[in-house]
Write a structure and sequence with these properties.
Layout: H1 19-30, H2 34-50, H3 55-63, H4 65-70, H5 79-107, H6 119-156, H7 160-187, H8 195-223, H9 228-261, H10 272-301
Helix pairs in contact: 1-2, 1-3, 5-8, 5-9, 5-10, 6-7, 6-8, 6-9, 7-8, 9-10
């Protein structure tokens, strides 16, 4: 294993991990995919304990969890398992990207703002709208047969937990919209809701998106579907991710243009906030593209 720690110290006296750090080591290992933990967790935990549970070593382990999700070692998965792992990661990252995109639309397009003399921002708005809609449509249509397949199996086998996970993409958005409507009625005013309430609603929206995406991901891991429906979903994820990358590019163009030509609009005169936002967009788009591409490649070549 190309692990996060150097095992060349096996001949040194064993040092017990500090109690205050042992739970951090377990939390760091919990960040990894189940297949990685099943193969490497005992070995890495032993190395961490032998190192005395240093915070630097624990941080190194935690930092490398992200590549283990969107670049899973091929030897840990068979072909269907690689597709399932890629689908679960791509679904979660795509949901975060979609949430960032909707936040962008709320703070720009829905405010009716397009700087005069700079039509490129309007073009970016249109490109974002079209790309996000196509990406969602492709993902939905391509994933629907797999979702129905797992739903029928969960009902037939009376797997209540898996059934609940599969219904989360419906339950979470409905619950969020109901909460949003109630919040707007209770906390809204002539100028809308306050910035604090808007921030809370936004965070709740990302939480709802994460829950909605995590449900099918857990069902994929537990039900382990195979066959044409899984290959179709993996292929659709690759196409959807490619189109979502266009939407992300449109966001970058529009936000950059607003920072250059509309510094008086909203918070675009503070470059730090737009820069952080764009960094999140780029990371979400990159994780989605890499994960979906790996799943698509497994579906068609077995690599």
């Amino acid at each position: 294993m190309s692990g996060p720690l150097n095992p060349g110290h096996q001949g040194r006296p064993h040092r017990q991990a500090r109690p205050s750090h042992s739970w951090l080591a377990r939390a760091a290992l919990a960040l990894y995919p189940p297949s990685w933990r099943a193969r490497y967790s005992a070995e890495v935990m032993a190395l961490l304990e032998d190192s005395g549970g240093r915070l630097g070593a624990v941080a190194s382990v935690a930092w490398r969890a992200l590549p283990a999700w969107f670049c899973p070692p091929p030897h840990l998965h068979d072909r269907p398992a690689r597709m399932r792992a890629s689908l679960g990661t791509a679904l979660l990252s795509w949901s975060m990207l979609a949430g960032l995109g909707l936040l962008f639309a709320q703070l720009t397009q829905l405010q009716g703002f397009t700087p005069a003399g700079h039509p490129v921002i309007g073009w970016a708005y249109a490109a974002f709208d079209g790309a996000l809609a196509v990406s969602a449509l492709v993902a939905g249509l391509g994933g629907l047969p797999l979702w129905l397949l797992m739903l029928r199996r969960a009902r037939r086998e009376r797997r209540g937990r898996d059934l609940a996970c599969l219904l989360l993409p419906v339950i979470a958005p409905v619950g969020y919209v109901a909460g949003l409507t109630l919040t707007a009625r209770l906390a809204g005013g002539p100028q809308g809701v306050s910035p604090a309430v808007f921030g809370a609603v936004t965070l709740a929206g990302f939480g709802a998106a994460a829950i909605a995406a995590a449900g099918p991901g857990l069902a994929l891991r537990r039900l382990r579907p195979r066959g044409p429906a899984l290959r179709l979903a993996a292929t659709a994820a690759g196409v959807s991710a490619a189109v979502a990358a266009v939407a992300a590019g449109a966001i970058v163009v529009a936000v950059t243009g607003l920072c250059l030509w509309a510094r008086s609009f909203a918070g675009y005169h503070h470059p730090v906030i737009p820069a952080l936002y764009l960094a999140l967009v780029v990371v979400a788009a990159a994780v989605t593209a890499v994960s979906a591409a790996r799943g698509t490649r497994a579906a068609h070549t077995g690599a």
